[in-house]
Amino acid sequence: MARNTKVQADHNAPAVTQTLARFVATHPSKGWSDAVEHEAHRTLLNWVGCAVGAARHDSAEAALGALKMLQPSPQAAVLGRSDRVDMAGAALVNGITSHTFDFDDTHLKTIIHPAGPVASAVLALAEGMGASGRQVIDALVLGIDVSCRVGNMMYPEHYDRGWHITGSTGTLGAAAGCARLLGLAETPTAMALGIAASQPIGMREQFGTMTKPFHPGGAARAGLLSALLARNGFTASPRAIEAARGYAQTVSTKCDWKEITDQLGERFEISFNTYKPFACGIVIHPSIDACVQLRSRGVKAEDVERLELRVHSLVLELTGKKEPQDGLQGKFSVYHGCAAGLIFGQAGEGEYEDAIVNRADVVALRRKVVATVDDSIDEASADVVATLKDGRKEHVFVKHAIGSLERPMTDANLEAKFHGLADAVIGAGRASRLIAECWRLGSAANVSALVQAACP
Q1: How far apart are CA 263 and CA 37, in angstroms?
Q2: Residues 295 and 270 occupy one common structural domain
Q3: What share of the chain has pLDDT > 90, as a percent?
Q4: Measured distance between the N- and C-terminal CA atoms of the chain, rounded to whole angstroms
Q5: Is the pLDDT score of 1 beyond 70?
Q6: Residue 358's domain is classified under what CATH number?
Q7: Residue pair 54/422 in contact by the 8 Å Cβ criterion
Q8: Residue 222 has what pLDDT?
Q9: Long-range pairs for 242-248 at CB < 8 Å and ≥24 separation?
Q10: What is the pLDDT of residue 68?
Q11: Which residue has the higher pLDDT, 281 or 338?
């Protein structure tokens, strides 16, 4: 018996799937400004560094162990390792490692980490098919544009429903990037997007576990498979994204269609990408920045009686773990982030090692942190007051943290971060060579030199 269910849906939504397909299939190669081109290479550099840095992490070992049981053919590299697996497997593992440290790029308007799904899928496919570096950069820019525009269309309602937006939109971005790399025409590109639309990946419940970094890896693999299916004639609804019971209206109560079409082909969302100086959730960064500033003023952890934060409610919703038990949980603790910032003057991956999260002085200081919700303060800001044992108070207000669009990391900052992640895995000399290959990829004949530099 059919259900008598009323659905409040937009049955006259514009042809979003076809619009995006036409854009991805027909936009001119390097059809953007030099600034966008440079940002694409910054995004690539940051993604490679994050992926290589986590190449020996337990999450990589576990994922590779599962993949090897499937007996994959050695088509593509796992960055930072000597392992080679099939293209889909490489997309999965590189996507996992690029997000494992929570140190990857962030599109702040949507808090999407766009490179993980898109770059992981595109590089694996490029290696398998012998694509040029120019083709890879084109696919990266266009794939990220698709995922972030879809994110703009649905954020924040989609995120508030519990979706991890990096994975749920990343599948579409990865499909778009791979469709472009394969040279698919408009109709099969629409099919690739349609197939990907039935595979949204990721729930916020998984934050603090290995399954969180699985989300961009799973999205990369799903997007790559979607493009390959479309290339071989597999079909999908040509209105899979916008239909009343399609992707967008199923996973979100907000569907602002104009976010897809506004300045499409003129404004590129990769221009608004940012890069993390701290290896944790982006909403903690203003508080850590404030604590680093307190340390630079001479405030010492042992002199602190109380550390008071006033932050937006999203900070505690996402990162309110008061007693993290390991590094992964520490990345979702504003309390640990503040302790690390004040004690060490930084919060890189080393400050999120299990031993540091459980170190006595770190635990003691984070228990002195008192966080209060104040929604008059922007998500990107933090108000921090340190009360010292002698009664003095030190106050820092951070409007925009280091790494934001207003205070961006420089190219030199990104290279230093890269070395901090990659040197211990592949050696400083090889890391320098890999950095150079990332910067020159747009003019490279293929991706071989980059992959060889990344894999010891």
Answers
A1: 17
A2: no
A3: 94
A4: 61
A5: no
A6: 3.30.1330.120
A7: no
A8: 97
A9: 242/10, 242/13, 242/14, 242/15, 242/16, 242/17, 243/13, 244/7, 244/9, 244/10, 244/11, 244/13, 245/7, 245/9, 246/197, 247/172, 247/197, 247/198, 247/200, 248/13, 248/16, 248/150, 248/153, 248/154
A10: 85
A11: 338
**Residues 6+ positions from 303 with CB-CB distance below 8 Å:** 388, 389, 390
Average pLDDT over residues 144-160: 97
Q: Is pLDDT at 228 greater than 50 in this prediction?
A: yes
3-state secondary structure 231-245: HCCCCCCCCCCCCCC
3-state secondary structure of 309: strand
Beta-carbon count within 10 A of 257 CB: 17
Element (H, E) at 382: strand 382-388
Q: What does the block give as tokens for 325? A: 């038990």
Give the pLDDT band (50/70/90) at residue 69.
Answer: confident
The sign one gets for the Cα dihedral 176, 106, 101, 158 is negative
**Half-sphere CA count of 10, side-chain side, radius 13 A:** 18
Q: Taking the CA of residue 6 as centre, how many other CA atoms within 13 Å lie in the half-sphere pointing to its CB?
A: 1
326 and 363 together in one domain:
yes
pLDDT at 67: 86
Say whether both 216 and 287 belong to one domain: no
Residue 152 lies inside a defined structural domain of this protein: yes
Instruction: Say whether 358 sits in a helix, a strand or coil.
Output: coil
- In this structure, what token pair is assigned to residue 301? 């952890």
CATH of the domain at 134: 1.10.4100.10
pLDDT interval class at 286 (50, 70, 90): very high
Q: Whole-angstrom Cα distance, residue 339 to residue 401? A: 17
Pairwise CA distance, residues 355 & 341, whole Å: 16
Buried b (16+ CB within 10 A) or exposed e, 368-401: bbebeeeeebebbbbbbbbbeeeeeebebebebb
Domain holding 371, by residue range, is 282-398
Statement: the pTM of the whole predicted model exceeds 0.85? yes
